[in-house]
Amino acid sequence: MARIVHVAAAQMGPIAKSETRKDTVKRLIAMMREAKARGAELVVFTEMALTTFFPRWLIEDQDELDSYYEPSMPGPVTQPLFDEAKKLGVGFYLGYAELATEAGKKHRYNTSILVDRSANIVGKYRKVHLPGHAEPQEGRTHQHLEKRYFEPGNLGFPVWRAFGGVMGMCICNDRRWPETYRVMGLQGVEMVMLGYNTPFAHTLHADIDGLTSFHNHLSMQAGAYQNSTWVIGTAKCGTEEGSAMLGQSAIIAPSGEVIAQAVSLGDEVITARCDLDLGKRYRETIFNFAKHREPAAYKLIVERKGAIAPPET
Amino acid sequence: MARIVHVAAAQMGPIAKSETRKDTVKRLIAMMREAKARGAELVVFTEMALTTFFPRWLIEDQDELDSYYEPSMPGPVTQPLFDEAKKLGVGFYLGYAELATEAGKKHRYNTSILVDRSANIVGKYRKVHLPGHAEPQEGRTHQHLEKRYFEPGNLGFPVWRAFGGVMGMCICNDRRWPETYRVMGLQGVEMVMLGYNTPFAHTLHADIDGLTSFHNHLSMQAGAYQNSTWVIGTAKCGTEEGSAMLGQSAIIAPSGEVIAQAVSLGDEVITARCDLDLGKRYRETIFNFAKHREPAAYKLIVERKGAIAPPET
Q: I need a labelling partner for B18 at 20 to 30 A (CA). Which of A55, A147, A219, B136 fits?
């Protein structure tokens, strides 16, 4: 019997710096309603879906910086999203900047949560692979200061039983790293949800940046195929405060095929009925990990962080 | 200054069971000459390039089986290939079935070697990811008994300084596993060479097998991009002893782009001038491993061989 999860990727156009969270949440709710009307039971929103992508600026005033983080989830402004989800009986993935207090100390993470159809938070993930820099870089019209504003996630890559399957989460840059999918694949993940904010001018090398769209799908397609899992990738996109960002939100099957894709650079809902059993035949044949993987040959992956080339001769 | 390696992928059409190694070596030499005439200094031949793909049969006679393996390299029949390489000043990658004697015992590996422009063997690799089965499967017109005829490689994924760069090797099914490229990427690999014999009917699931071409390139393109390396993939292809095999040999840049591809299902040489420095800007930005990888979050990759899903609730 097919195990169907009817999922929506709710791509988001630009969020202006001046836009209030209240108005942003209205946009999320509008997309959630559209998704529900089209039959979806799970809506994947994007990374940091509540505010503009603030790591593009050096913000030295601590209060101003903190205004971008959520000290509680749900909070007063996000409660309506949870209420609507409960009313509609729809679950969701939501990315946001998290201000956590752990052991009496403040910590900042780039976080996502998985919320079930009764509006209960059933999973939390904190972004492991922070891109960009800790210090502003010369020659950039837009900075990318995630390494300054966040700590690397301290929750690993967990998976959760929800929506009738094994669900996993990651965020943006995580999707380029095969380790991300593999750690979840080794826990039997069947659907990986992720949001991203990807400016085209991310490396400042025109040859690389010109391939941003290709690399976006390549990474997610390979992750899906090599781990027999669905991947749902949802963009924040369009020109936000002068920074042009990639759209191309996609629903990708365990075959690696893109089976639904956004075509705009604005708020746009795409949906697909995802059969979680589709990955099964891959997992039982070419990607039967128990039969074919050889972990003894992989040790360097955990023993070494950076690359070390053999000495020049 | 650009560091160019002018490389050829020497795709090979079918080798009939009745074809002698002497005739096969002549075909390899003809392609080596063509590659040299077009400017190449390094020729990548395919996996098990000296015989038909014998794991498609259950062979119970030990002498018959052993006749497919090379007890020495070069041996009497392969020496002319080495002689020609030396004469032309061309290096090569060659795949073959290896009969090794280690600690007084016979061992069988699916092996490749890297030979320099003076015909010296500078590197040896033994296939880590053996696909298929140890016992014949019912319902198959062609078996895939690599797990019966070979032991998993015991040399890991080493790299070598040669041809002005850092060179790595893998074989066929290895290319589907991101760990393969990553272990070499962590050693600064700049060019990964691989040969493959990939029958279309490899899983017997029509939906998967119908995507064989897509999965072939997807795996190699992701491996190239995610590790900032060139990948040279060379097929044995066409209909060999009734088994239809994939062609699509490709030279793939560190961007993940296929920059040269075979169009036939026969002996065909494709070439490209590969600048080993092309990967540098990727390694220094998005794929700066030392800055961005988080090995503490990857432990499961080496701690666990098979997937273990969380208990059903």
A: B136
